[in-house]
Amino acid sequence: MGTTREKQPSAKIQWHPAFCAAAELELRSNKGDLEFKREYNLSKKPLQMDLLIIEKRKGVQIQNEIGKIFRGHNIIEYKSPDIPADARYEYQLAATKDSSTLLEDQWKSECPKIINATFDQYVFVKVITDNYESKVFRSNDPINIERREFTKDNVAVTVNPQTVVYNGKVRNSEIKVEVFENWSGFSGNKVDSTDYTILGWTDQDGNPVEELKDAGTYIVRLMGAKRNYWENVVDASFTINKCKLKSQMEGGPLDKVYDGTTNSRRYLLRFPAILVCLLSRIFMWTRSNMHIGVQMLENTI
Questions:
Q1: Is residue 194 a contact partner of residue 225, using CB atoms and an 8 Å limit?
Q2: d(CA 190, CA 199)
Q3: pLDDT tens digits, residue range 204-224?
Q4: Who's near 207: CB < 8 A, 6+ residues apart?
Q5: N or C terminus of the chain with fewer C-beta within 10 Å?
Q6: What does the pLDDT read at residue 144?
């Protein structure tokens, strides 16, 4: 009589290692730009993600179709066949540990993307299925993103254009002041205007200037707006160069045969209108204050 073979318990298939290996294979074109962390803990205890992919360099172009939507830190979860197909997830970011104080209308269908500076924020995840009571999970540790110092080590202020030539007009509306990320390993992204305040313009001696009109160098001062940067002050310069004067002489020597007539020639120097106006004012002042008479001279042969 044959012996009956004892039924072996079915082993549970481990899907996650294969999934992580497949993800690394898909993104192999940018392997040097990415860091893969399997079974990464969101906190010291329960919440654990299947795969965390970190971009080592900001602004790198990922070749894979999925990788094109990556940000700095990318959480990827694999759902095995054992997880109910109707499971849905909602997320909420709040500065509290108590899930009972969460507002019902603040649940989002997408995991929050935390970019700006924040303090003591917790991530809550609500799991919803048709056949089970929904449950809320919370990250064990708070999320803290520190502000940066608003200094030239972290930001670069640009003034465009940086130099112009004096033309007698106010140049304020022509000037564009912008701020860009400038820290080590920076992406060079433009800093949002809500992250700083333009305090105003001064001359080189620190005197406030409203209109950028006359030739000279001006300083613009900016201060961090206490969102993602501390309230330090940085500056940049803008220069209006002096205009070069141009003159043109009309008239000159006259060659003719003697005919007994008087001849006079006028020599005219043409200057910009602003210089003519200036010379006119100087002449009128001299005349009224020094009582110099004007005498007409005739040139005779």
A1: yes
A2: 19
A3: 999 999 999 999 999 999 999
A4: none
A5: N
A6: 86
Whether 162 has a pLDDT exceeding 90, the answer reads yes
Single-letter code of the amino acid located at 231: E
- For 115-153, the pLDDT digits (tens) are 888 888 898 989 888 877 888 888 888 888 889 999 999
* Distance in angstroms (rounded) separating the CA atoms of residues 91 and 112: 7
Question: Two tokens at 93?
Answer: 């970011």
Task: Report the distance separating Cα 82 and Cα 69, nearest Å.
Answer: 28
Judged on CB neighbours under 10 Å (0-12, 13-18, 19+), 128 is middle
Q: What are phi and psi of 11, to 5 degrees?
A: -80, 140
For residue 148, what is the DSSP state? Answer: B
Find out whether 189 and 213 touch, Cβ atoms under 8 Å: no
Q: Nearest-CA neighbor of 152 among 58, 229, 207, 227?
A: 229
Instruction: Please give the average per-residue pLDDT across 161-188, as a whole number.
Output: 90
| Beta bridge mates, 49 | 40
Q: How many CB atoms lie within 10 A of CB 220?
A: 20
Q: Which two tokens stand for residue 255?
A: 């060659």
**pTM, full prediction:** 0.52
Contact yes or no for 138/114 (Cβ under 8 A): no
Q: How far is CA 196 from CA 119, 161, 172, 188, in A?
A: 20, 20, 19, 16
